[in-house]
Specification:
With 339 residues, the chain is an alpha+beta fold. Helix content is 40%, strand content 12%. The chain contains 14 helices and six strands. The protein has helices at 4-8, 52-65, 88-95, 99-106, 115-124, 129-139, 158-166, 186-192, 205-211, 213-218, 222-239, 244-256, 258-264, 314-324, and strands spanning 36-37, 172-175, 181-184, 274-281, 285-296, 299-308. It is elongated and about 65 Å long. The relative contact order is 0.19.
C-alpha cells in the first residue's frame, strides 16, 4: 500500500486494503473514518490585527496594475510606463474623480468615501462582485460587522450535522470563517483524510494545504486549490481585519510557506462557489469530483461543501468502493475542544 495512506489518514490504512478506481480491494479493508465536528470556543490569539489601510493601498495598487489601457478602451500611446498597468490619472479619468482624490484614496488617506465613488472605482477597475465587496469593506470607516463577531465560537447546528450523516454516498463538510473544518461526514473523511485524528487547531484547510505534503500529493491541481484558499481568506480578512486568530494564521503560514506568502501578496479575493477538483487518492487512484459550496442561510460565514462524481464514471465507482469499506462501521463523532 502507498505510504501516503498512513500520513493522509485514509481509510484502510491499517487494514491492508489497496486498489484503483473501479478495481477491487484485497485483504480486509479498515472501516471509514468517523464523521465529526469541531466547534472551537472563542479565539485567544494575540497576533497583531491586519492593517486595513495598508490592505486598501495594496488592493487598489494590484487591481490597477493588472489592467492595460486597451483593456478599458483607452489609447496606448506607447509611452514608457514605469509601473505595470494603468496610471492613477487614467484610472481617475475612468472613475470620474479627480487625480488628487484617487491618489489620496490609494495612499490610504481617503475619509468617508461615498458608496457612489467606490462603485465608480470598482467599475473602472473591472472588479468582480467579490472584489467589489472587498473594496467596500476595506474603504469603510466603520467595521463591516461588530468586532465581537470575529471572536465568537462557530457552532454547527445539530440538524446540519444530521444532514451530513445521512449523505452517505457523497463527501460533504462544513468549513468556517478561517477555512476551519467544522463538521464532516464519513465520505469526506474517506476522500480527504481522517480529520478526527488531528488536533482541533490542525483541522484547517489552509494549514493542511500549505504545510502537509500528503495534501500536496492529493490535489492534482494543487496550485488552483491553494489559490482558492488564499483568495477566500483574503475576502474574510476584509470583513474582519481585527480577528486575532486570522492574523495568527496568516503570520504562521507566511513564515512557513513561500507559496502562501506569494499568493497572499497578490491580494486576490474570491468567494467559494462551485467547480471541479482532480485528486489522486492513495487508495483508489484518480478521482474527478465536482463540488458545490453553499453559504448557510443563518450563518454566511459557514460554507457547506458537497462533492460528487458523474454517475457511472470511474470516479463514481471509486467512491462506491470507498463507501463499501465502511458500511458496517458504527456512527461516531469527534469530540470538541479548543483550537
Amino acid at each position: 500500500m502507498d505510504d501516503r495512506a498512513n500520513a493522509f489518514g485514509a481509510p484502510g490504512a491499517a487494514g491492508g486494503a489497496s486498489g484503483a478506481a473501479g478495481g477491487t480491494a484485497t485483504g480486509t479493508a479498515a472501516p471509514l473514518p468517523a464523521s465529526g465536528t469541531a466547534e472551537p470556543p472563542a479565539p485567544s490569539g494575540t497576533a497583531e490585527p491586519l492593517d486595513r489601510r495598508a490592505e486598501l493601498v495594496e488592493f487598489l495598487r494590484t487591481r490597477r496594475a493588472r489592467l492595460k489601457p486597451e483593456d478599458v478602451g483607452l489609447p496606448d500611446l506607447g509611452r514608457h510606463r514605469r509601473v505595470p498597468g494603468l496610471r492613477r490619472e487614467e484610472l481617475a479619468q475612468l472613475a470620474g474623480v479627480s487625480v488628487a482624490y484617487y491618489t489620496r484614496l490609494e495612499q490610504g488617506n481617503g475619509r468617508n468615501v461615498s458608496a457612489e465613488v467606490l462603485d465608480a472605482i470598482a467599475r473602472a477597475l473591472r472588479l468582480t462582485g467579490a472584489e467589489h465587496a472587498h473594496l467596500n469593506h476595506l474603504a469603510s470607516c466603520k467595521p463591516h460587522k461588530k468586532r465581537q463577531a470575529a471572536t465568537r465560537p462557530q457552532h454547527v447546528r445539530p440538524g446540519l450535522r444530521q444532514l451530513l450523516e445521512v449523505m452517505d454516498g457523497v463527501p460533504a463538510y462544513v468549513s468556517g470563517r478561517r477555512s476551519e473544518v467544522l463538521a464532516w461526514n464519513r465520505m469526506a473523511a474517506a476522500v480527504f483524510g481522517d480529520w478526527g485524528e488531528l488536533p482541533l487547531r490542525e483541522r484547517n484547510w489552509a494549514r493542511l494545504i500549505f504545510l502537509s505534503p500528503a495534501y500536496r500529493d492529493l490535489f492534482v491541481d494543487w496550485d488552483s486549490k491553494a489559490s482558492d484558499l488564499v483568495s477566500s481568506l483574503r475576502l474574510y480578512a476584509g470583513c474582519y481585519p481585527d480577528d486575532p486568530e486570522l492574523s495568527a494564521l496568516v503570520g504562521e503560514l507566511s513564515v512557513k510557506s513561500d507559496e502562501f506568502r506569494r499568493l497572499w501578496a497578490t491580494h486576490d479575493v474570491k468567494e467559494k462557489s462551485h467547480g471541479v477538483k482532480r485528486l489522486h487518492h492513495p487508495l483508489v487512484g484518480p478521482l474527478t469530483l465536482s463540488y458545490e459550496g453553499m453559504s448557510l442561510p443563518d450563518d454566511d460565514e459557514q460554507i457547506l461543501v458537497i462533492y460528487h462524481a458523474e454517475p457511472g464514471s470511474p470516479s463514481d465507482e471509486a467512491l462506491r468502493l470507498l463507501a463499501s469499506w465502511g458500511t458496517t462501521t458504527p456512527h461516531a463523532t469527534a469530540t470538541t475542544g479548543q483550537v
